[in-house]
Amino acid sequence: MSRYVIRRTAALIPVFLGILLVVFVMVRLIPGDPCLVMLGERATKAQCEAFKERFGLKDPLPVQFARYGIQILKGDLGTSISTGRPVVVILAERLPMTIELTIGAILFATTVGITLGVLSAIHQNSPIDVATMVLANVGVSMPVFWLGLMLAYVFALVFKDTPLFLPPSGRLSPGLSLPPLSRVWGLEDVEGFPRVALIFLSNSVLFNSLVTGNLAAFWDAVRHLILPSVAVGTIPLSIIARMTRSSLLEVLGEDYIRTARAKGLRERIVLVRHAMRNAMIPIVTVVGLQTGSLLSGAVLTETVFSLPGVGTQLVSAILARDYPVVQGFTLAVAVMFALINLIVDLSYAYLDPRIRLD
What we know:
By secondary structure, the chain is mainly alpha-helical. Helices cover 75% and strands 0% of the residues. The mean pLDDT is 85.
């Protein structure tokens, strides 16, 4: 097992180098001149030359790439052209929101999707199976922005002043706020990575409210997270449900399942101990891919529910031709995607020991 883990982890090194190169090149291929975007169309040639000189945009691309690679090794993602703030700080402010939304959406999609898929498989061709698959197809077909607006309309307007009311936007209700953890823990003078870590943890509303003992803010944040999690998790839920059904039906037709039933094992034991474990590999793959996709930022969902996440910031940076922000955010998302794929690969070895031998 340890050799398998080391081998899969070492394979990430060329992947990270490839990610770095692709992100650098793709950002440079974005049409438009960052000088004209930042300084306006009336910017003179001299002003643009000084702008490019200041941000190193006049250097040859290999020089820029080498400099960027050295910065990354030092943990420096550069400085935003539009705001002048360190990209790593902007990322630490935006990423917690996206991570919380991703966790909420994946928990919802996985729990409900696997349950529906199992029910559909064990009641094949029954009304339950048909209803589940129709529901899955409808879920895949609904646009996220439309579903988000409908959920906000129903639970914020139709159910207003009822126990079913849910907040339609924002992260916390007006009047609720959380102090920075640097102030709470008396670490306001720290710099470097500890400062970035404190910014990240402070902007994670759920974590901040728990460690500061503000349970009112915690439950309020959970309520604000329900609607966007359901909206963005509906499509993954439908995909997971369909994959669970097809994978489980394939496994239930195997000889060892018939043998287990012939031995007199209860159907629940056959399903949980024998069938589900062998059916989990494609399901885990889909869950990993959907998690990585959500971490890239749900732009429409963040816009509809006014959430300050990665997606909206990345779109704003692209429109502003803010190279450092686009590079930093894209690189961070790609690295997280690669790490999630590593976790999925390692889970294969747990679910199927034959993979370790291969």
